[in-house]
Amino acid sequence: MITLERQSILNSEISAADSRAEISTVLERTTREFGFRYFMLVKQPPADEVLLSRILVDSNLPKDYIREFDRLRLLRKCPISSIIAESSLPFCWSMDDRFHSGMPAFPLELTQLQQRYEMTTSVAMALHSTDGTGFRIRIDGSRPRLTQVELNEIGMLLLHAFCVFDRIRRSEKASLSGPLTTRELEVVRWTAQGKTSSEIGKILTLSDHTVNAYMTNAIKKLDCVNRTQLVAKALRLRLII
To answer: Which superkingdom does the taxonomy of this entry point to (predicted)?
Structure first.
């Protein structure tokens, strides 16, 4: 498929998407149109985050890959993260191109994992929502490095897809953005004081499962990725004192 035809078709599909499922489908198609296999969209990880699974928003990555990635604690070991954070442009690299100028060294365990899943060439870029939330999008496969023309093309498509995703996300957030319930606030308040789910359950006479459900609802409503970020945001918004 020639570049202009591919751009036109994919841009039309992206524009027509009106749900997360449809965005996921078109992201996977875009990934494959450029000769890659996998994509992932993640939230910008907090400074203390070490697990990919906790910041993953959407992907078609194999579950075994995610488990192994987290078992090896590779999130903070990827040398590309700092490069992506310093630019809004897409960045392409290949582990097969070891002598490319500016190519950082990869930890052995990360290199072996990427090779095992045929993810030796990647493209990634930093993205930001209109509400300031940071995201990262990345695609992986075993094809040769992209040409500059291909990189420019896929960068524009990924940016377009993210803009549509962000519109959908903010719409969902608006529908859930009512104030936290009394129980949710109680759970967040006790969490801020260092209590575990089990301890909070005993204090409020609730099961651990119910406490965790309240916590999950609060995390979603405040658009956070974990308890630490939830407590920090609740304090910043003066929801708890």
So the answer is: Bacteria
